[in-house]
Design brief:
Length: 134
């Protein structure tokens, strides 16, 4: 029980400090409100208008976003019940989300560095639709 609570606290602290670059981040309250779907990923990709040189950085980011969406779905279904098992599932979901978000942060750095200011602004708009605040 204590381990689960500690993992949840660490996850929330990690998510609260998550940022892709200056100006990008996920607020702690919105951490589980971020919805990642294939449609959202496609919308972000389309909004960025990546060049062929930038496109090579997109694949790992998209794969991690898909993994995050899949994990969210698993924990959303598992936490539909009430009681200890559901609470434990939610805490596990926070921890897994935090780890995946940190991985996303690392994988997104080369892509973000290669974007123009116009692409970054378009990306911010698309990310806002997924619940990412900046």
């Amino acid at each position: 029980m204590w381990k689960a609570a500690l993992a949840g606290a660490v996850a929330l602290a990690t998510i609260g400090s998550f940022s892709l670059s200056p100006g990008f981040g996920v607020s702690p309250a919105a951490a589980q409100e971020v919805v990642v779907t294939e449609g959202q990923i496609a919308r972000l990709h389309a909004a960025l208008h990546l060049t062929s040189a930038q496109e090579r950085h997109w694949s790992p980011v998209a794969a991690t976003l898909r993994r995050l969406g899949h994990q969210q779905q698993q924990y959303r279904v598992a936490s539909n019940d009430s009681g200890f098992v559901a609470a434990k599932s939610r805490v596990a979901g926070y921890a897994v989300t935090a780890v995946t978000m940190q991985r996303l942060r690392s994988l997104a750095q080369p892509l973000i560095a290669a974007l123009t200011e116009e692409q970054k602004e378009a990306g911010r708009s698309a990310l806002a639709s997924m619940g990412v605040s900046f």
